[in-house]
Amino acid sequence: MGVAIRAAGASDRDLVVRLLDVAFQDDPVSRWVFPGDEYRRATHHQLMAAFTDIVLADGRIDLTEDGTACALWLSVPAEEHAEGEGEGEGEGEGEDDGPAQLRASIDPANERIELVARLTQEVHPAGRAHEYLWMIGVSPDRQGEGLGTALIGAVLDRCDREGLPAYLEASNARSRALYERLGFALPDRPLVLPDGPQMWPMWREPRS
To answer: Model pTM?
Structure first.
């Protein structure tokens, strides 16, 4: 049986934010950015809301019809990174504006919000147009059912038809394994967060 997928709109914003919040509460990168369970529960959703707003404005959010999984995509042109792209970035016109504004809007005292934005911005490939999978979230009680594969596969099929590569940053070993099965590879060394976990920037060439 196929998975029904539709494009999310503004009316789905709160659903997407809640879904991303619960899906990433125990993610290693989220735990590093927001150390401490109480602090993370109180603040993490604000970062997910910022990501959702950027992609609703400038990209596309694919949502399963039952609302249990979503994928946030940006189409990045060859000339430059799209505004706000990068997991945790929100890049603006100035080189430093986006990450700093993101930190200021969520928790000015938490420098890790800004730092993870800058680090992922630095490793993001430039020079070729590509589809960027910013985030994908699956409800914890539905993980392992193939929903993430269905969401990603629909876009990768289009990438293959149009000759477009795709890019993402895996934030845990389980998701990295999924992305490898879908044809993504690590073009360089992992990104190691200071005193924190690894992230894996991964690139996928289109398949003929």
So the answer is: 0.89
